[in-house]
Amino acid sequence: MSPPRTPAPAPALAEVLEVVEQLWPLHLQEPWDASGLVTGRPEQPVRRVLLAVDPVAEVVAEAVSGGHDLLLTHHPLLLRGVTSVAADRFKGAVVHELVENRCALLTCHTNADSAPGGVSDAVARAAGLTATAPLVPHPADPAAGLGRVGELPEPVPLRELAERLARAVPATAHGVRVAGDPDAPVRRVAVCGGAGDSLFDEVRAAGADVYVTADLRHHPASEAREAATGPGGSGLPHLVDLSHFASEWLWLPAAAAALREALAARGHDVEVVVSARRTDPWDFRLETPGPTAGGTA
């Protein structure tokens, strides 16, 4: 009879941070960003990790009630400077809940956007792209950077690409919005998880047939369509607009697997799971039938 197996020791938070730095290096984050450790002692053991898009109260409650030692979110909690984390406000209450229950909070925002295998790579996989390149290469690492651009194995109608993405992302009130002829063939695809309407010049320069991103505001989207369909325009790129939350959620399962495997390679059996909470801020949407007959605009 073989002796009972000794459980692998839990890594300290400091070692988990080393692994995270290898996967999603902090030097890749944008200058305005605030990724990194928010709460937690470097020496505390980490046996259970929860991944989520947003460090909101319901996600923190899930982490605490589930006995997680670390909550890793995509969006920062304290992106802009604060002078107080008193618990009478929602961000302060979140900080207190985490600290009082010994749950560390780590955020990987634009460093996870830019890193290979990060957010935009997850959107690219959902779109069906194989080989891709950064849309905006990072100055310190040309293999990394914001957005991705690549080609589908063969052209597909715009509607088919949009439907493929709609099946891949979590359900949201936003759904998937599309600008362009639904039957137009598309092959070269640019993507950017999260808000990507600042990258239209790069999308056009990349010769993309369609741009898949999120949070497209009226004026940038309208101007992009005018430039595409106006004098001398090619009609491209078409636009596929996802929910901000949904586009970035696509990264979480891949990130959980990567973190789990990297820790296992160091001899640690850490439970790494993805939150089931939908933290998109919108609850429902109504179709707009327009004014009734005889009404005024």
UniProtKB/TrEMBL annotation:
Coiled coil (residue ranges): none
Domain of life according to the entry: Bacteria
UniProt-recorded name of the protein: GTP cyclohydrolase 1 type 2 homolog
Assembly information from the UniProt record: Homohexamer.
Gene Ontology cellular-component terms listed: cytoplasm
Positions annotated to bind a divalent metal cation: H74, H75, D113, H244, E248
Organism listed in the record: Kocuria flava
UniProt similarity note: Belongs to the GTP cyclohydrolase I type 2/NIF3 family.
Pfam families: DUF34_NIF3
InterPro entries, alphabetized: DUF34/NIF3 (IPR002678), DUF34/NIF3_sf (IPR036069)
GO molecular function, one term: metal ion binding
Keyword terms, alphabetized: Metal-binding
Transmembrane segments: none
